[in-house]
glycine--tRNA ligase
Amino acid sequence: MAASEESLRKALAEKQSAVEAHGNAVRALKAAKASKPEIDAAIEALNSLKLEKSSIEKQLQAAVSGSDGDGALSREAFRQAAVNTLERRLFYIPSFKIYRGVAGLYDYGPPGCAVKSNVLAFWRQHFVLEENMLEVDCPCVTPEVVLKASGHVDKFTDLMVKDEKTGTCYRADHLLKDFCNEKLQKDLTISAEKAAELKHVLATLDDLSAEALGAKIKEYGITAPDTKNPLSDPYPFNLMFQTSIGPSGLSPGYMRPETAQGIFVNFKDLYYYNGNKLPFAAAQIGQAFRNEISPRQGLLRVREFTLAEIEHFVDPEDKSHPKYSEVVDLEFLMFPREEQMSGQSAKKIRLGDAVSKGTVNNETLGYFIGRVYLFLTRLGIDKDRLRFRQHLANEMAHYAADCWDAEIECSYGWIECVGIADRSAYDLRAHSEHHVKNVFDEGQREGNIDFIGTNLDKSGVPLVAAEKFSEPREVEKLVIAPVKKELGLAFKGSQKNVVEALEAMNEKEALEMKAALESKGEVEFYVCTLGKNVPIKKNMVSISKEKKKEHQRVFTPSVIEPSFGIGRIIYCLFEHSFYTRPSKAGDEQLNVFRFPPLVAPIKCTVFPLVQNQQYEDVAKVISKSLTTAGISHKIDITGTSIGKRYARTDELGVPFAITVDSTKDVTIRERDSKLQVRVSVEEAALVVKSVTDGLRTWEDVWEKYPHHTSGSADD
Ligand code: AMP
């Protein structure tokens, strides 16, 4: 907690007790019929204590508002203004609006589509092109076997609580978060200790188990927000939309909750495509579906959204990155685990220091954190409202080596927009080792034959890479040799199943079997393709360790995964770009989006200053050259006043406006400075193109061309 806030809470508690004590003293004096001067003096002292108390209250309110109180109000007002503009100008709109919409589903309208496609184009340029990534495009409908192997069927859950009377569902952690925030912002009487406790709960919210979350909800007496009814204990709710593939209904599937699995299951082919070389990255942009429990916060929590994901495959023994030196000196806000747990705030840290101290697990992870920082800030995200927060111990999957979220601050607080995780070898192993048992257990043999794409009697395809040795190396290897003759005598037609199950044992299982056979002579062994245990005797299999010469090392690559929620980034970009400024007459506030040309939905508008055939013809000529130059633009030949036309395009974040006020030269106006230069009709399109393509800046243009100062062309 900030020192001033903490000391103010303490001072307020002390003043409150002093006011109560003095109040009692005044009442006692009155009861004892003390003299008037004595009572008046006591009342005066009480009043001055009350004044002091109210002054501390004001200071505390201001301290809390710095981040929350009044701040929350102005943030709310800012959001209202931004969202009204965004929805009115069709950046995005609730889907199926004429049917009163569906929570968590949004459409992008024309300028929204243009911004999204610019963001994605830049993503492709900044990541796919820069790193020669292999882009793929996989289906959204995914068979169950894939998501069972990845762990999503069993574990892709959020904790939910239900209103015990109405059955309305809520996300348990959101209720606790709202409770803590509200208490901190609105209840100035809570002690400094209680405030610190609530802040700790907020900082460690993602770390809480179902039991701990349930216990806190009970301890704080949190009830259903709409009805105040009691709540159930938290329980997991799977977020995937279930479907079935084909008409039989026998083949369960899901709408993918992320795009990553499409890449993992293609690893073998992509590795081959890459010349069997590591490291390499694959990338995918596509829709993801999550049946969020109670979507809120507009585009930030939706049930269908665009993800852009990178899976960078790397040798677990060498996580260096050849281009790491390009990002090593970047300095930005980082929020390591220890700082979060001890209640500190994010600090500016040099990326190279975070990696060399081991705060960030390895160079490749650091490299991507740096690249994500550059990507977001070049899009127009404010670097002071962007931080990289490390996952807390419980928040991070058990297999992950390290994980950082790029969080962007907007009117809703700090929002996770990009997750950057070193997921070790988990995903590739999960698909390699996913044994056919799962398929049979679900009784889906027929439906799933096509999904596995391989002989159903075998476990998954090994998703591994190999390092070729220049000289062969001697290694100790486990050899499992089923004695087929004995197995045939014992199991007849099932011999093949037993042989393959024995051969599929991993080292741990094989060594356990060897030990058991040596001590007991016989073990029970589960053969999943038979769906039962069979007795294995000592003479049926030989398990040994042998020295062998190896020419290569076969291993499962680690994967480093940056995963971008495109809608969240776009929404934060909208907020970071939005501002209002007074109209020239000062009678209204005009809305502006200061999008960099890179993301602006339209780069330029062209208007004749007045309705006049000659000017319209010039405007059409310029529009044609803009089209030829590939610059998105809008031509407006309506007779509306020029000020109104500027205001309309500022609201769409159009960076440049060309106004035709002669047949020889025209003005180009820059949106934020409102400065104008004069350029020839022939040059106009190329000047705009050079700035929007980033070949020069507006400042360069301002330096080179004559300035235009007529007020008539401005608002
Ligand atoms: P995750 O796989 O949960 O780490 O999510 C990857 C990214 O997807 C996050 O960093 C978010 O930017 C985005 N995301 C996750 N859930 C949603 C949602 N319900 N609506 C919009 N974006 C989301």
